[in-house]
Amino acid sequence: MELRRALLLFAIVLGLAAIVSSVANPPVREGGVADERTQAGPSDSPSRPTANARPAEGQITVIRFVVGRPRRTETLKAGTAATVMTSVEEPGAVSIDGLGLVAQAAPLAPARFDVLSNRPGRYPVRFRAVPDAESRLLGVLQVVPAPLP
User: Fold this and answer.
1) Which domains does the chain show, CATH number per domain?
2) Is pLDDT at 35 greater than 70 in this prediction?
């Protein structure tokens, strides 16, 4: 019985230690970058490239397609982040063929897609109303190669 209590106490202490270590902030080195190797200087370790999961504010292009308006082609440079929004008059599904994106849409809730494609091509944007079997072409998202630097 005493062994069980000791093991239970040990498990509780380990669990609390794990919670505290996950909540504690990692040390911050010069430049505001968190790193486990705070003792290593800049010459001791090779620099590593970093990438942000989201582009900087103001760099996202918003592209809108609206059911009932004339079809149009919207152009986007490869590697550019964009938000594609589709406004509809009745509930249904919106898809961007070729990119494998599908979202539900309603009159007060437009379909929204976050797009970042590196593959140049033409991608039809289609809407299918709930009772309909056929989809309607709203327009085309055209991804063009990015200019070389």
Assistant:
1) 61-144 (2.60.40.420)
2) no
